[in-house]
Amino acid sequence: MLRYVFGLSLWIVLSFIQVVEPVKCTINITESRVFSQSVYVRWKSPGNPCNFSMIGRSSNLWENICNPIQRTNDSYECTQSGLEAGTLYNISIVALQDGEAKNLTLQTDPLPPSQLEVKRNTVTSTSLQVSWTSSPGWVDHYELQLRNKQGESIQNVNIHGNFPQKEALFSALNPGTQYSISITAMSGNKSSPTVSINGSTAPMPVKSIDTHSKADSIHVSWMPGSGNIEYYKVLLLQNKKIISEDTLDKQMTTYTFNGLLPGHIYNITVITGAAGLQNWNSNLARTAPAEVSDLSVLNEGSSTKLKVRWKPPLGKLDSYNITLSEKGTSKYSRTLNAASTEVTFEDLTPGRLYQVNVTCIAGDLSTDKMAIGRTVPERVKDLKATSNGVKSLRVSWVPPAGDWHQYHLVLYNQSTVLLNTTMEDHYREFIIHDVGLIPGRQYDVSVVVESGGLTNTAYCKGRTAPQAVQQLQVKHANESSFSITWRTPLTDLDNYVVSLADRDLIFINKILLKESKEFTFADLVPGRKYTAKVTSFSGDLNNWVSVEGRTVPSQVTQLNLVNQGKSSSLYAEWTKGRGDVDAFQVLLIHENIVIKNESVSSEATKYQFHSLKPGGLYSVVVTTLSGGIASRQSLAEGRTVPSSVGGITVNNNGQSDYLRISWLQAVGDVDTYVVTLSHNGNILPPLTLSKSIHECSFSGLTSGRLYNVTVTTRSGKFENYSFSQEWTVPSAVQGLTVSNAGRSDYLKVSWLHSLGDFDQYKVIIKDNNNFINTTVVNKLQNECVFSNLVPGRLYSITVSTESGKYETSAMTSGRTFPEAVKKLTLARRGSEELHVTWSRADGDVDRYEIQLLYNDMSVLPLITLSNTASEYHFTSLTPGRLYKIVVLTFSGDAQRSTFVEGLTVPSAAKNIYISPNGMTNSLIVKWTSGGGDVDSYMVAIFRQINQIEAHTISKNIYEHYEHTFNNLIPGEQYKIVVQTNSGSLSKNMTSFGRTMPSMVPKLWADNEYNSHLLVVNWQSAQGIADRYDLLLLTNQGALITNKSVSATAKSHKFEELVPGKKYKIQVFTVSSGLFSKVAQTEGQTVPAAVTGLKITGNSTDSLSFTWTSAEGELDSYDIFLYNPDNTLHDRKPGVQSLKQSSFQGLLPGRLYKIVIVTHSGSLTNESSIHGRTVPAPVTNLQASNRNTSNSLWFMFTPALGDVDLYELTLYNPNGTQKERLQANVLKEHNFQNLVPGRLYKLLIVTHSGDLSNKVTAEARTAPQPPNSVSFTDVKNTSMSITWLGPPEWTDYDDFELQWTPTDPLVVFNPYSIGKSNGRIITGLRPGRLYKFSVRSVSGNVKKTLSLPITGTVRTKPDKIQHLHCRPQNSTAISCSWTPPDSDFDGYTIEYKKNGSDVVEYSKRIEKHKAALTIMHLEPHKRYVVSVKVHSADMISQVVEESTITMIDRPPQPPLHVRVNRKDSFISKSSIHFSFNCSWFSDTNGAVKYFTVIVSEADGKPILNPNVLLFCLL
């Protein structure tokens, strides 16, 4: 504002001066310079000095005033500062003296932005965004330029200076690339200095991260993204924590993370770095689960179960899959949760070896471990040892289920082994003899089943047979018993069994003490002959001897004397007594006098006495005789029968269920009367009346039945009878029905038989005209037939039932069958109609129904007509069909039918088709049925009006017909007539057809040695022809052109054809629009040679080449390969479409000539080229360290073919070069001073000319061996082994353990690191001596091993199993056990008293013993027995068992202390007695309980009371 005021004042002063003193000052500008915030102007003013002022104005009305400086007399200059950059100023130089002014326009230089930066948060892989601060002053626009590292401009952007957002975006850039961004402020035509910065696009992340997992490592691979990449960084994270990080070269696309935990999920991130920026991609991966440890398969003594146990592996897992296999086949598979450590498999085969696979599953990864186990074999079944003679035993058994290898059979006499033998698994029995067996003695037999070292034992006992008794005889006998005696044999016996046999049937068996010498058999059958047998028993074996004897016969029983209803005779009957009988003696006694004495056979049980006095009392005596011995007598009495009544009368009183009976009194003594009704043996309940009553009645009887009436006279227990008969009234019939049987003059009457009894039926028939007929029907029939009746008439029928002199009736009605109509006739017919007529039927008719049938199936619904109708008309029928017309006559519900057949007129044939069918002398005629039924067709052919031929064709199921007429004239028109026949009717259809003209003969084509011309020639065709049509076609049949010539032409020329192409020429003869068969020939032009032949590929034994096909067409190629000396090396053909080929089996490095010959017909052309094969690489490249740790030997076979130079390069594992050499002739080379255990790569390049070939091989030096093997924590099945590893500067990855014996051990690395100097060994056999060797291992690929170091160790033996100690007596105990499944030398057995630490006994025994008896102990003391197992200097755990020795039995009671018979209660089946516990002394220990033994006595006094009664402690 001050400037503006000052400027205004100056103008006032200047104006005043000008007015006052007008002095002129000239202004000549000589120089002007412009800066960002200032301008410099220099001018000259000749003459007198002048005072000047320089004023600068901008568009914003601001002014800047500069006071000039006079440099010389006429030179002035002024620098005006404080201007705005980039602003356009109007500069005025004013002479203060005279107001002379000079104007010029200047623009200050624009300033660049003070800050230019890349917006980091917006950087992507393909774009960059920059921002800047506004430049001071004025800017028209900003110009930004993007350049690459080479300074090449990539993109330019202009941003207006007034745009509020000072930002610019560069897109479509290359990922991971550094760019230079420069910005220039532009004002007018001026630009500021350029400001530049560098910016980079982010690299593209990797693609397709793939992982391959192991238990302790994950191998990662990926696909690089597009753009620039400088390096990769791989990160391994778990739970958002970085576990491992590594930076890789950009050529690397794989990486392996080692030392990981099994089964864990990791985040794998691959970071791509370039131009100072990074981008990343990640993937989740899981390590494979580790194997389980301490895997064992145990049978725990079971034959059908196996228990699998393991220790969980390190790391994580989701579940286990346990698979049990047998003989290579999976049997069971189970999935268990991760917390499981065991599983049991059941229902297995005994003795079988199984394989168990435990698979650890984590996600979709799994790890498998295998172990084996065997079930315990089963015992043999049904083990029996039977006597095979007095000094032999037969041992037999049923084989066990499952698998086994062999048997062991052991024979014991108490604790002494008499026999121990081994048998193969197919044995089923074994005979023991010649081992000094004692007759009658019991032996113990065991059969051991063995399978894979496991055994199972079955036991049984066997005994030899004893000897029989001597001098066996019968002592005495009676009716029910006899006694036998014998002498005791000299043998070992348990007891006797006496038995009694009757006719070889044994029914008595009795066990006797071995001291017994006689026995009495009781409850025997009288009069019977018996065989007594005495069997000597020893165990379950016996021997016997027998004797015969007879008992006294028994008397008869149930002797009766009866009169059999007669008044003059008696009948004696008895039951034979028990036992055997020879005969009976029978005596009859009356009034104490024997009047009859008879002897009858043993089978007789009755006898009859005649001519006796009626009502007399008699006695009979019967005696049994058997073997001359008589039984006791039997006696019985009997009486005769009284007389019967007379004068019986019976009456039914007209009822069907009632009878009344009366009679006269009987002569003699009568107690009561009994009246009984019966019919055919069926007796009604009787009525018993006193002797004063002479009549009675019965109701509820059966109708029409003739009853037998019986009146019984009773006197004492005897009766007599009188008889009479009478009918009840019969009942009517039921279910009365009438049937006409489909006949017009016939009726059949049937019914259900009447209830009750009757004699016959009577049937009466009548109609409305009172026609009557009566018929009598037998009682066994239930039907009646009437004939000669009126058709269709209704009749009434009555059926009467007659029984004796009584009858009852029932009624019904029935109708005869109507007659059919007469004179049924087909009156007229058409193709679709039939008309029939008829005459009225005889008899009674209600209506008519008419029906149309075809093949007995209804065509139309039934049509009902009145009984006066006599015709009917059918329409819409099928042509040519034979119908059946049925007319039905109805009378009531009855009907009768008759029919007539009618044939409709057939329809004409349709769709007649006539064709020459490609033939010149024949016509084929085809047609289809016109509908309806047809029997046959007749087809005829006419030339003009003359019939040439006719043919009949039978009907077929397809409804399509055809016929061919031969020997016709080519090109002639014919008339065809097709006649349809159905039955006796027919119909015609006419059509026309023409034969085909014949083709031209002797057609041929000639190229006349021209590549563009073919001439076609032929001879005239036979027959009539209008013209010839010629077709030129490609060899594939595509039409090129066609021509028509007159019938007189015989040749034609085709021009402008393709060279080397094959053509087909077809000629047709045309007659009235019909074409003949084609006549065809072929022609071909000369081919051209191929072009563009070049080599496209070569190898050590092949050359590949391509070419461009020649113009035109060709048939094939012949390809020739020539050696450098122009001799033919190879030849092969090629199809016409072939544009490339190759030769195989060539010599490496040789120059060959290739010639391609083109064939088209008989013409050829050729092209050629030279080519060389690639030199071959060396072969049989082998590498060996020869068990050295610092050298490698490489051997190879020189390459085939021409070789100029071999170049060998050895590389370190990181790809750096270790050594290099070149040679013309070389077969092997030794590299020395190498690192032990390191993997090296050898590259051998074969040079031949300008071509080369290479081959690589890898080899590893042997690692240095470990040192100082030691063993710790040695147990029965596990231990730890440690050693010192090789020096750290050498390469090695792991250690390998080997051992002898080669048991299936489990080696566990507790540190999960291969270089760890220790392992845990499990699965060792207890007590076994092992030798271990340890070698260093280097690498998983090309693995090498160091020399071994060795060490020996022995495991502890297992403790014994199933220790069982039991008292033998009061001073000895017996202990037995199961030997351990271990390698061991023997046992140490010790015992001490319970509660004492003093060992009283110690003994070392051999390993084959598994039992020991310890004697000289104190009675009733508890002893603790311990057993230890020894294997060299290793001792197992101690197994202890305690037991108490027996006490001595108490002293025997005094002889006067016994059970008193008087104080005992004895019944038939029990003995009750009591005794006092004080009878037994506590001298040898307290008595705890008693045992009572009861045995059958033999009548002798008891000599040894403690056999019956003794006490147990």
Automatic annotation (TrEMBL):
Identify one Gene Ontology CC term for this UniProt entry.
receptor complex
SMART domains membership = FN3
Q: Name one Pfam family in it.
A: fn3
CDD domains, from UniProt? FN3
One MF annotation (Gene Ontology) recorded for this entry: cadherin binding
Gene Ontology biological-process annotations: angiogenesis
- Signal peptide residues on this chain, from the entry's feature table: 1-22
The domain of life is: Eukaryota
Q: Where is the Fibronectin type-III domain?
A: 112-205, 291-378, 468-560, 641-731, 732-824, 905-998, 1265-1358, 1359-1450
Record bears the keyword Signal? yes
The alphabetical list of record keywords is: Signal
Q: Fetch the PANTHER family from UniProt.
A: CYTOKINE RECEPTOR, RECEPTOR-TYPE TYROSINE-PROTEIN PHOSPHATASE BETA
The identity of this protein, by name, is: Fibronectin type-III domain-containing protein
> Which source organism does the UniProt entry give?
Engystomops pustulosus (Tungara frog)
